[in-house]
Structures are given as structure tokens and as C-alpha cells.
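Predict the holo structure. Ligand: zinc ion.
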Amino acid sequence: MAGRELLLHVEGISETPRHYRFEAGGGFLAEAGARCVELREGVEAPPVFELTAHRAGADLVLEGVARAEVSFTCGRCLTRYRGALREPFRLVLEPAGERVPAEPEAARLLERDGMCLGDELEAGWFRGPRLDLSEFFHEVLALALPVQPVCDEGCRGLCPGCGIDRNREVCACEDRRPSSPFADLAGLKLGGGGTPRGGS
Ligand SMILES: [Zn+2]
Ligand SMILES: [Zn+2]
């Protein structure tokens, strides 16, 4: 189910750049949530897409930025944190004319949305009087999501020994673990006073 609220009318686009602002509505968010768990549970401020559109010859050029605020679970310390997503984009759409995209999915979207994307998110085709930008915005948003969410670059994570949050507390594991094998060896060497215990 694609939201129908993210429509751009081709006739309104001229050589003079025009500004548009789209705020994702319920339909878009439901679809985004179905695609991604973070967007199902953690959207704090709905995604906003701001762009300028202009014509360059027969092509349409859309340039802008996607923004959203989403709560994530830190991959190191497991706390929830709020992250600001920001993803710039630039898309050039050329008239499809009579051409049919080789990929069936792209052909379907060109039919349904009046536009489809190539392999990259930077180029595509359009056909007809209006563009449904939902699919493109979903792709941009997916790019904006962190691959491995981290609350802070310096997050020290949970102690693998005792499980405490090392950002807040200090445990003894850290001191003991790295030194223990060497401490044992040192003890053996020194303990015997040069003569191994139990030696002949
Ligand atoms: Zn963290
Ligand atoms: Zn510990």
C-alpha cells in the first residue's frame, strides 16, 4: 500500500526551481514500518522531505534532503537513544517515452507511480502528469538509517564479563582479565625460587 500523499505534478515544474515540502503521513509511515523495525517502533518526528524541482531540457531534477527523528537501540550498550537522520538526495528523471524498463518491478512502478528508479537513486524515468514520490522517499530513508546504531562514537558498551554498562560504572573484570594469564605465569616462575615445585 503506497501512500498517495507524496505527489508531484509535472506541469507545475518549470526551469525556475520550485520548493516543495512533504511530510510523511500515516500511509507512508505504515509502509515504512512494515519495511524496517526501527521505523515501526521508533519514529519520534515523522520524516520530512524538502526539495526543489526544476526542468533541465526534458528532464526533471529533484534536489533536497530527507529528515527524521528516530529512536534506536545502541548496538553496544543497548540503551535507547534518539537520533536525527539527515539524507541529502539528487534525482534526475528523464522522460520514459515509449521505453519499458527491463526490470519488471521498475516497469510496474513506472506504471503505478509515474516514475521508476535505476540501479542508483540518482537517476530514473518518468511518464505521465504526476509523480508519486513515496517509493523514492522510502529508498532515501533506508539510506539514512544507520547500519549499526551507536548512541555515541565513544560508547564503551556492556562489559562482556559481568554485563554492567561501562559508560556508567566501573567493574573489576577489566583489570583482572587482560593481566590474569601473565600473572599466573609470573607466579609459577617466581614461586619456585628457581627450582620447579615437585621437580626431581
Ligand atoms: Zn551505547
Ligand atoms: Zn565487568
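The chain has five helices and eight strands. The mean pLDDT is 87.
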